[in-house]
Amino acid sequence: MEVEYSVSGGVATVELNRPEARNALNLPMCRALRDVFTALDADPDVRVVLLGGRGPVFCAGADLKERKGKDEAWVRARRLASFAAYETIERCAKPVVAVLAGPVVGSGGEIAMSCDFTLASTAVTFRFPEPHRGTVGATQRLQRVIGKRRAKELLFTGRVMDSGEAHRLGLITRLVEPDELEKAAAETAAAIAEAPALAIELTKQSVDLGEETTLSQGIRIEMAAIERNLADGGWRRGVEEFGTWT
């Protein structure tokens, strides 16, 4: 299987599983990502998803070998399949955390940016070589994360960006040493899974929808989420536990 996953204690662990190809993204992997995240989104036992890659490389980008002998219609359909995979990750109602242990290239960056945030080791590098490979990609999510001018510089030059710069620019949310990554991921997942599921879901939804509108409209979005949360009744837990927080 190009993508494997397991669920334990409310935490789903998803892995890109083509280590022999440095987890390069091919059509079967696109379809597998879409199917896996559709299933996780519908699973009431899943509270948070950790997404990583098997082997030393998170993802080496699109697998260009599969395009040999194909026509333009096939390549177009293949690109649409990758967009569908990214969108399924992005629209998952559960928090999705990218756990990056090694190099992230091209489509791998798209996968990581489709997650809610990223944990990464200092061994991680990013590269967006799409124009240098004779194609177009990463033009939308990348500029939304790091800004238009920085995105252009990375895309035009295809240079490798180290973990420190990626952290400063926001591609990496939390940076740790390689031997601390697994523990940091487990602690992060446990902290998210501990919170009421509906409150987390509504918070994610409110942030995502609010990004696309004005502040005043965003407040209306948040108020609608608050009303839904009040109707559920789970908010009482926070009131009862307030005195135990520090």
UniProtKB/TrEMBL annotation:
InterPro entries: ClpP/crotonase-like_dom_sf (IPR029045), Enoyl-CoA_hydra/iso (IPR001753)
One Pfam family here: ECH_1
GO biological process: fatty acid beta-oxidation
One GO molecular-function entry: isomerase activity
CDD domains, per the entry: crotonase-like (cd06558)
Annotated protein name in UniProt: Enoyl-CoA hydratase/isomerase family protein
Source organism of the structure: Amycolatopsis acidicola
Organismal lineage: Bacteria, Bacillati, Actinomycetota, Actinomycetes, Pseudonocardiales
